[in-house]
Write a structure and sequence with these properties.
This protein is of the alpha+beta class and 492 residues long. The chain is 50% helix and 8% strand. It has 18 helices and nine strands. It has a four-stranded mixed sheet. The protein has a three-stranded antiparallel sheet with strand order 3-9-8. A hairpin with a 6-residue loop joins strand 5 and strand 6. Helix 6 runs antiparallel to helix 7, helix 6 packs parallel to helix 18 and helix 13 packs across helix 16. The longest helix is centred in the middle third of the chain and has 32 residues. The termini are far apart. The relative contact order is 0.16. The model has no long low-confidence stretch (mean pLDDT 84).
Length: 492
Amino acid sequence: MTFWFIIFGIFFCTFLCYQRTRYSYWTRRNVEQLKPHFLLGHIPKLKGMNHKEFMQEVYDSFKGKQRLVGVYIFTKPVAVILDLDLVKAVLIKDFNNFASRMTYKNEKDILSQHLFNVEAELWRPLRTKFSPTFTSGKIKFMFPTVRKLCADFLQTFEEAVEKSNLINVHYFNSLFTVDVIGTCFFGIECNSLKDPEAEFLKVSSKIFSRSNFNVRWHLFKQTYVGFMKFMGFKRFPQFVEDFFRNVVCEGFKAREKQQILRNDFVDILIDLKKSGELNLSYDQISAQLFIFFTAGFETSSTSMSYALFELAKYSDTQNKLRQDIWEVLQKHNHVMSYEALMDMKYLDCVLTETLRMYPPLPFLQRVALNDYKVHGTDVIIEKNTEVFIPAYGIHYDPNIFDNPKQFQPERFLPGGEWVKSHPQSFLGFGDGPRNCIALRFGRMITKLGLISLLTKFKFSQPSTKNSEEIEFSNHSMVLVPKGGVYLKVEKI
């Protein structure tokens, strides 16, 4: 008994020494840090928190005082960048040293091998091949398809308003964006607007509405990859992986057999596979389809929902936007053309302000590929150290944006507040070479969806379910509203 007590004592003391050494990583490098919690580092409360709140305590504690600070994700040291010049260095100026987004590498986790996640070596050729899909010319080519789906969207929305004027706009926006992404990217008619039980919609809702997902577990999986591999854990449920693998196998075989050409994203992947240029397997192709579908549909639908929520709060802004849309359409002979969309400058400001207040990713991630000396300091960010940039905290910093909780699209007008600000003070789509590849396409479908609704309906906050702020889900990788966004809707 005494022997085992001694063994346990030695093990416990050794573990405490390891913890103390590990949690002094940043102080030993003369970098400020918050006091970490035993085993959990700086995430003791994350089970009941969402990604938005993760970096907020760190940002609020050190903003304006330090250029970067240290935190611990469990026992892993992470550098948090607070200075905007240093943000620019990481994302743009010294991008080659921060070209990877995260250290998570699990070959058994098929759906993690996508453009958003993969290391720099694979990301560069993938980005080069996919970028032509998102040029202005390609976006303009897809415009008529999205406009047609807007008509279906409007019809479904009108039918819902006839039954009740209290509408969960997030739900209907999701139907619209699922159909747009499915049609434009993959040539698949998802039929979500006509069939609420459509398979793509059911799968997408399970991805972003999982009750078993929480931020702590998500970060644990990213931190202890070796343990995840050993236990066979994956970042996404098996049924999601099976669904996208089946879509790829069936869709690709059908196209190759029938020699179907749609000039879409799938055609690019088929060409890459045939040429052997990137030696893409069906599993890797499944991962690309997965990220473009899930990221495209959810970020667009939530951006539309958040914009409508703020416009319902500020009726003067809503009226101003509607008037601007009508005036532009009048200039273009009442035709909703691509050129007319590009002319709607105030709508662009509304969307940008929405993304400031509701960035899809509340913090950005990068990895130091080599030791990196922080300019103007003696601090070294060591190779393979993860770097976090708290986009949400920056967007709500009153020293950067006046009245940051106030919805003010005018900030982004020519000569407005943001023009005079640091260019990295807005990170709604990330920044630098590894920013959102589909930002033009995302903005197009979001704006077309908003135009369709605002020209036919007026939105206001209902007396029931009324709230000054949106409550966010704790069970999503991106900033998703908990329980939907309910607004009072009236026909114009």
